[in-house]
Amino acid sequence: MALSDRAAATISGTRAVMFQDVFGPQTPRAEQVHPGIYFTRAANVAHHAGLLLIGAPSTSLVYAKAPATKPGQLYSEFLKLNIASTVAKSADALEIDAQGNEDHPSRYASFVQAASLQAIAAHLGIELLAGLSTNPNGHKQTTQKLLNSALETRLSVAGFGLNDPGSGKLCKGCARWYASVANSFLSELSINGG
User: Fold this and answer.
1) What pTM was estimated for this model as a whole?
2) Which of 9, 27, 132, 175 has the fewest CB atoms within 10 Å, counting from its CB?
3) What is the pLDDT of residues 156-187, one digit of tens each?
4) E-assigned strand segments in 93-193
């Protein structure tokens, strides 16, 4: 039995895996500084197992390459460093980490569109997703802000990655889950044709 057959038999129904690099102790330093190498390795492993790879580079990776970046410059620096295109070269899909801009839907949409263009230039035909969160940076989000962000970008991406982080080591600022916000957003999105 080939490896891809064994993998398919072992994880029946699984079609894709997600690989996310972030700035911080949970990601080895080499992966933070050279994400392209590690996303390529992850794609090779996924493809060998007959799976698709969803690349999800965190915008926080900027701090590994440009540590003096001010928080207000994070998204523009992410684009300047071409992280989306670097990951898109080997990924089958790209989730654009735009959650921190949900309070400003036009800024959210602008970043998603710019990162999408970079990804498409590097890999024509890549599937594009935009990240949304009920709790970006530890602050509860409203259903309406999530919906506005989604509607602003629905023509730029094929779908969304919705994150509802609870408290824990990886999100010290996250107080709790907001499943009611996530459920309400999903209901509103289906009504509004998102």
Assistant:
1) 0.87
2) 9
3) 999 999 987 766 666 666 666 778 888 888 89
4) 93-96, 127-133, 159-163
